[in-house]
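Bug report

Summary: structure tokens for Xaa-Pro aminopeptidase differ between web form and batch submission.
Environment: batch mode, default settings.
Steps: 1) Submit the sequence below via batch. 2) Compare with the web form result.

Sequence submitted:
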Amino acid sequence: MTGLAPAVVTTSADHAEKRRRLLAVLDGTGAEALALTGSTALAWYLDGARSHVSLAADPVLAVRVSRDADEVLLTSNETARLVREELPGWLTVCERPWYAGRPDLHARPETALADALLRARSPLLPVETERFARLGADAATALTDVLAVAEPSWTERRLAGEVARAVVERGADPLVVLVGGEDRAHLPHPLPTGGPLGRRVLVVLCARRHGLVVNLSRALAFGDLDAAERDVQDRVLAVEQAALDALAPGVTLAEVLGVVGRAYATQGFGADHWRGHHQGGVAGYAGRDPRATPDCSFSVAVGQAFAWNPWVPGGKVEDTVLLGDDGLEVLSVDPRWPSVRVGGRRRPVVWER
């Protein structure tokens, strides 16, 4: 491999910490080098660089991390843009023709060290939490702006398009935009259709910027909720409160999921309701990194972000939160959105317009 840039020089304390974590992975496995090829690991290690052209395709680059250098492998048709606009300066750039296959990296593949890399991404660094907070505020503002002007006659696709536009205008990628109108309130993942919104709508958004993915949901009603709808909303908020209250250092995600399951039962939704939809997990460089499952041993720690998403037909709540030394901070907040206090926290409710 021919280097087109000087040998890597670490000038960022943040990168130095990430590199230290990866060298610890190498030391723990006895590997001489590690190949990063997945979008999650690349976004984390490359300071949020966009490693894709198509969101539906594999990254267009790979990084080889060894004890001597950080080398990025690029094809010639991508080099100029990536070096000028995306890649940090501490990389050694190794170029090949666009028609040539990727050379043997002589490194342990990322897939063989998935669990170690997952744990290396935690906890988030201060610069990452600052970026996350700005993204959360921007995403929440985007939803408020769009839902403030939405009309019952709009189609789900029109609303999804307006949300995507607002997200892109804020420099983020709309990875997931779900829209469920009145007739589709029973669906946990309502991909938008050409049907009208009707009296109520739920919007679910996952937006990515600097590699970080923020998750939030908002519900809008054209008119007042009835007593049954308010009851569902209150009980879903109580389930979320149980999940948030359970986030203490050392607790596993499996244990938090158990708390969520019991909360569903306590609130009258049934002890097995949690099985009908995933309930959340750690937030970061993937939608959930990792997702909470009954056998997930990943432990909660200060400096991690989380997104829990209790859902029942007709009710859902979801935000991205950060566990700090002083407790939980909700990142995806727009103070204009209607909220109530639940367990000492301001939580979003259905906006009755």
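Above is the batch result. After comparison, the two runs are identical; trailing whitespace caused the diff. The two ends are 61 Å apart (CA to CA). Helices lie at 13-29, 39-45, 76-85, 114-120, 126-147, 156-169, 227-245, 253-266.
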